[in-house]
Amino acid sequence: QDNSFEQFIINYCNEKLQQIFIELTLKEEQEEYIREGIEWTHIEYFNNAVICDLIENNQTGILAMLDEECLRPGTVTDDTFLEKLNQVCATHQHFESRMSKCSRFLNDTSLPHSCFRIQHYAGKVMYQVEGFVDKNNDLLYRDLSQAMWKASHSLIKALFPEGNPSKINLKRPPTAGSQFKASVATLMKNLQTKNPNYIRCIKPNDKKAAYVFNDALVCHQIRYLGLLENVRVRRAGYAFRQAYEPCLERYKMLCKQTWPHWRGPARDGVKVLFNELKIPEEEFSFGRSKIFIRNPRTLFKLEDLRKQRLEDLATLIEKIYRGWKCRTHFLLMKKSQIVIASWYRRYA
């Protein structure tokens, strides 16, 4: 019921994961159609980059304001942190408090003075500022670290390396928020170098009961997970895309003109192949560097034909090998018979 610093950090991570989901499944896919010269009508979707910027911006982000409050001299409280947010984020469309200009709840008692609200991609969440500053500092006094490092137990000593007098760092340790922000940035950098697959889990009800589906709850999750936009892009777009060279290499055995070798550009070879297979023109499009196949059943058809063709080629190879083996054996027997007969005639 009361969301504090911990839930704020968790929701920030969720925003970043949603951002990379949008980048890789909606933004990147539509941009690829444009790059490849495919006729395409842009599908609008909500990009939560504006929410991520509200939280992590180095100058005006909430985490930056929190760090600034933790580091500045003088009296620092959670209330002064909230006042700072009201000054810096007052006009942001996704930030609301009792004092902000964007708040539509100035007379709403459900939004206390000690709280602020962020309109996340998944909905609005209200945060209680009490404890934000202390939890973000996350400091352990240097003398306590040194005392723990002097313990005789090896495990306890290993847990507090910063207590080693020879490694004392007078520099203020990073705050919890900045550490988490750096960890999230490392995670995002790692994910962007991969080819991730997504599994979206839908909670059917709030009671964890079997065979009970709450339609309103399910629809709400589908909307805020961005699945509607994703489905629209997928249905309007192409289920499969592949560069011309590997596509021709995989399916060239299905056409006599491209098998076993195609002399010429790979794109022309793919055109000859698809024309030979009589695949309807509305089922595929030729991009600048890739072939785009609209319906999965077309791909399944190609795979079935390829599987059957491989079996036929395996049978052909086996037939040729058996013929060669029998002929070789026959010629050897014939040669042996001639040698035996010649020696027999000589001594007969």
UniProtKB/TrEMBL annotation:
Ranges for region Actin-binding: 184-206
GO molecular function per UniProt: actin filament binding; ATP binding; microfilament motor activity
Pfam families for the chain: Myosin_head (PF00063)
Keyword Nucleotide-binding found: yes
Swiss-Prot/TrEMBL GO biological process terms: actin filament organization; actin filament-based movement; endocytosis
Alphabetically ordered keywords of this record: Actin-binding, ATP-binding, Motor protein, Myosin, Nucleotide-binding
Residue ranges of domain Myosin motor in the record: 1-307
One GO CC annotation: myosin complex
Keyword ATP-binding: yes
Domain of life: Eukaryota
Family, as annotated: Belongs to the TRAFAC class myosin-kinesin ATPase superfamily. Myosin family.
Protein name as it appears in the record: MYO1B protein
Organism whose genome encodes this protein: Thinocorus orbignyianus
